[in-house]
Amino acid sequence: MGSFAGSCEIVEEKDEIRLTKHSGRYGKSVLGSSSKGFEQKQREYHGSLEYDIDKLFQSIPVKPSTRLMGSSFHNLETSASAGPSRTTSPSKRIAMMKKPGTPQSPRVGGLSDSVSLKQALRDRCISKASEMAAQKRLSKSAAASPRVSEGDRIKSLYNQVSNESASRSALLPVGKGKGNLVEVSLMPINDKPSSSRSVPQRFEDPSSPISETSQAGTSLGLQRVENQMREIKLLHKSNKCGSCLSSGSGDYEIELDDNVASPSTHAFFEDDVIEIDKHVTSLPSHSSKKDNGTELDEKIPSSAVESGQKGKLDNAPSSGTEKIKTVRKVTRMIPRPKQQPKKKILVKKKLKIGVVSVTYPTEKEDTNDLSLDSSANQLLCQRCHCSLKSTNIQNQPSSYTTSHNLEICSDSLSSISNNVGKEAHQVADGNSSGSCNVSQSSESVTVVMKQDVSSSNDSGNGARDEKETENPTSSEKFEFSLSSKDSLGDYSRSTSMSEESNLSRFSCGNKPHMSMDVRWEAIKHVKVQCGSLGLRHFNLLKKLGCGDIGTVYLAELIGTNCLFAIKVMDNEFLARRKKSPRAQAEREILKMLDHPFLPTLYAQFTSDNLSCLVMEYCPGGDLHVLRQKQLGRCFPEPAARFYVAEILLALEYLHMLGVIYRDLKPENILVREDGHIMLTDFDLSLRCAVNPTLLRSNSPPGQDPARMSGPYNTSNCIQPFCIIEPSCQVSCFSPRLSSNQQQGGKAKKADHLSKTQQHLKRSLPQLVAEPTEARSNSFVGTHEYLAPEIIKGEGHGAAVDWWTFGVLLYELLYGKTPFKGYNNDETLANVVLQNLKFPDSPLVSFQAKDLIRGLLVKEPENRLGSEKGSAEIKRHPFFEGLNWALIRCAIPPELPDFYEYGGGPEASASLGVNDDRYLECKAIGDHLEFELF
Ligand SMILES: Nc1ncnc2c1ncn2[C@@H]1O[C@H](COP(=O)(O)OP(=O)(O)OP(=O)(O)O)[C@@H](O)[C@H]1O
């Protein structure tokens, strides 16, 4: 059996022959040139067992996989098969092939035991070859592009493998050998666990759509994906709203609906889309990208950017890394917009805090009879971080006590007002500007006000002599107990306002808002030097005007540059005309006042039976004269709004002090040097009892708010745009939400702010310091400004000031009063009988007209302000957006010839002597303040 001896050779030869058979060109070069010998061996081979075995192998399903690895595989296969063939007989090899599969065999599923050995060898060869190929490619890629990303490297590998598999697939019928393709495609990326982990699951699934995808379909899918991505890009470029992409994706809706974030979002989004498009189009689009195209088609449907697909996309096979990268770029777009609403969240927090901080008091607090812990109610302004403190007021008849803890706001603008008047002012209008302006870090002010006066200075009270004025023993009694710790100085004091102690001491202590005024020091200096202050210390520069009870002069304190307005009243004349009570009332009211829109009384003295009041000088003239200088003799509405707003605060303050002004008219409104106003002339004012009460304003509609006296919030916040409204309701106004704010991206935010602040308004308590119980039957005032109830003699109260307030606004806007007749009698008749009419010109806003209508209601009980005083009026839309607390710091209207009435002879000549009304003023009889009862 020489044949057996040569079997090895045969085997080897047959291996060579078989090799030649599979790879002719290569085989020829190996076999040499002896064609005859080759043919002989071939014939022998075809009749041998080896031939049969090879035929058997060719018939098994793994045959295609042997082709997949190309020539290298064949080399390996040859060497592998040659190994055992040299040492093992064919029979043994057959026996070995009949053994159960080796551990290497499971890689190819479905193999029979009869071919397990062969298949195991092939498997190992395939794996080895794949790994080597992969490593080679990786090393090539790394060498060619050291900085190439992992995604790009995988992409390159993927493309190569895809090309190979596609080219091999071209040799196979569609649908055949698909499982083997998996083996090949997976091998290079096994070192990418994150991306490849899911691949086997996907491809082991026989129902996987990928396995059913044809090559043609793959190409179409890739093309479709490219088109889709281009569509996305175009949509974003054209719409810039992303709504087309946001369907079903709340993330995008949030992002793109946020107008604030939209610009950056758009840029970000568009950039990514461009990148997406670039990535997709950069993929080779030739038809050989079967897997790539298939996966892209599968993973990026028309709504590929929907966030909901993120999880699915993350599970994409590693072969689709390029796509994954692309899609991840899309999905990364989602978290970024989610960061944008942080602003919203932040804003909401602020608002929430604000709501919480000002929601006060609760029902529980209410039932606790105002025993609120002020410390627990100390709040922090969210914007300027100044403190808001809820304080306690002991509810006592006609009295209140407050503990006001002041902390300094950095934007202090003027001096503090921490005496009774100022405290009262803060309570009344919440105008915290005074308190904000103080360089005091902590001040506790306790205010006790007792007013046992029902009506004091009506004409029926009769005149009082000067001594009585200076040392009053009347029933009027104001007690202001003021205890404070001031960093600027100690003023812990107890002041009786029925004495002249403060003024006689030339102290500015009770005029804190003017405490920094040098005029205090000048007067004090004279007092110290001369022992007393008199007319001899002043140079009377000119006569500013004369009234029913006196004459006002512009005066300079000798040796100083300080100008004052000195009202000189002849005591004998007053006594003879029974007008001493009016003079006394004015004097006492002036002593009380400490308000930026009311005159400061620096000193009072009597010289040669002349009673003198040294007051702050206003160089701007009065509003009546100023109005005459306006175009059309009326003020522009913003200017009128500004002036009446300041007047409203002054009236509010007076009412809080129990003073009904009763003589409001443009002539009594003076213009300061800084353009703000000063309400003067208090000789007709009525002093009365007042019981400031705090109303909880969040009561159900139609139900009177629960009255509560006691705690109120105080604030020294003067930040112009502080959203937390300071102090009590009467002083709070929401910032005006301009039309610009209402438009565009801030509309929602502004709307939200508006709603929040409306809620704040509703929830804040209201301080009512309106002397609603006061009644007088005096017929006082100026004809055109007289309220109907005064004319009818039915008795009147504080509501008369709101009537006159309406007449004032009307006159400032229209240049005339609403009920003026040909003579005084007709005017009075019109006031009582005539309906309110508005001229066609000038044009006045609906809000202004509406406010006037509300104020000029003939029945005082139905008049705006009659119930809750200024708090009602402040809330009118005419004042919407006005920052009451900062109005004193606002820039006054620019008006022509503003300082024409400054000191000097020239100015004196133009002191309105040619003005009819001013002449009327001189002719006191015509400009009457008459007292019928
Ligand atoms: N502080 C002041 N600064 C500048 N001018 C003033 C000041 N006080 C008063 N005047 C001017 O002096 C005039 C007289 O004022 P005064 O208060 O004495 O009388 P009246 O206001 O006309 O009415 P009445 O008769 O009620 O007193 C005013 O019209 C005003 O123009």
Question: Would you mind describing this structure in some detail?
Answer:
β7 and β8 form a beta hairpin. The strands form 6 sheets. A 5-stranded antiparallel beta sheet has the order 7-8-9-11-10, with helices on both faces. The protein has a 4-stranded antiparallel beta sheet with strand order 3-4-5-6, covered by helices on one side. It is of the alpha+beta class and 933 residues long. It is built from 42 helices and 19 strands. Helices cover 46% and strands 10% of the residues. Among the domains are: 104 residues, Phosphorylase Kinase, domain 1 (2-Layer Sandwich); 212 residues, Transferase(Phosphotransferase) domain 1 (Transferase(Phosphotransferase), domain 1), CATH 1.10.510.10. α15 packs antiparallel against α18, α18 runs antiparallel to α21 and α25 packs across α33. The N terminus and C terminus are likely disordered. The chain starts with a helix and ends in an 11-residue tail after the last helix. Adenosine-5'-triphosphate binds next to β7 and β9.
Quick rundown:
By secondary structure, this protein is of the alpha+beta class.
Name the features.
disordered N terminus, Phosphorylase Kinase, domain 1, Transferase(Phosphotransferase), domain 1, five-stranded antiparallel beta sheet, single chain, 933 residues, four-stranded antiparallel beta sheet, 10% strand, binds adenosine-5'-triphosphate, alpha+beta, 42 helices, disordered C terminus
